[in-house]
Amino acid sequence: MNAHELEAKCRELRQLQALIEEAQEEAEGIKDAIKAEMGQNEVLRAGEYTITYKPVKSARMDVKALKTALPDVAARFMVENTTRRFCVA
Length: 89
Prior knowledge:
By secondary structure, the protein is mostly helical. The protein contains 3 helices and 2 strands.
């Protein structure tokens, strides 16, 4: 792929990303409107659709607090990984 083709691909990518972002924002607005309509209800029927909005509990490790309280223990269980970040600027 030559520089002109690569530039065209980057332009196309940016346009598609803008469309995706716009669609995601619109979808979030619709979700927010549905949630507002639900109020405190966890389940709501709308024709063929069943809408649920239920609390979900989760537990996560507070790594920052662990490093502060027990740095030696935290260091023993630290796993390092490497990823590649793709960016078009």
